[in-house]
């Protein structure tokens, strides 16, 4: 995969593609403020950590999975959401919604079944640490950021996230 253009969000270099911009907008339009802020922090913290230990991952798949990982979270949705089902876990609803987003907004040449599955797995498994950290780098990278946002830097293994990095992301992401 070729190198992607990047942009700085809260002093973190993240990929800058039209599809990622659409994913940011999609997350914004399908989340309440607190959930949207969480997915942005998860994206940024995940990039800080994963760039140190998983540099060869698919950065676009990582970014999109992080941005869309809570699409199925019922508390994090506006009341009129059509994403949430009555019979599935929120992670599965979110994984289905992320895959459908990619099928609708991506191209089949760029988003083959393997890449779609990476994003689906990252979203569906993000709450199950005993599985997610045994999966592909993209899936792990997504969860690094999610878990770091909930648990803080002291729980990130090997000191891969400092309090300075964490606090900078928390402060700056409020304005994104």
UniProtKB/TrEMBL annotation:
HD domain sequence ranges: 35-131
Family annotation (InterPro entries): HD/PDEase_dom, HD_domain
Source organism superkingdom: Eukaryota
Gene3D superfamilies with a match to the protein in the record: Hypothetical protein af1432
Pfam families: HD
The protein's name: HD domain-containing protein
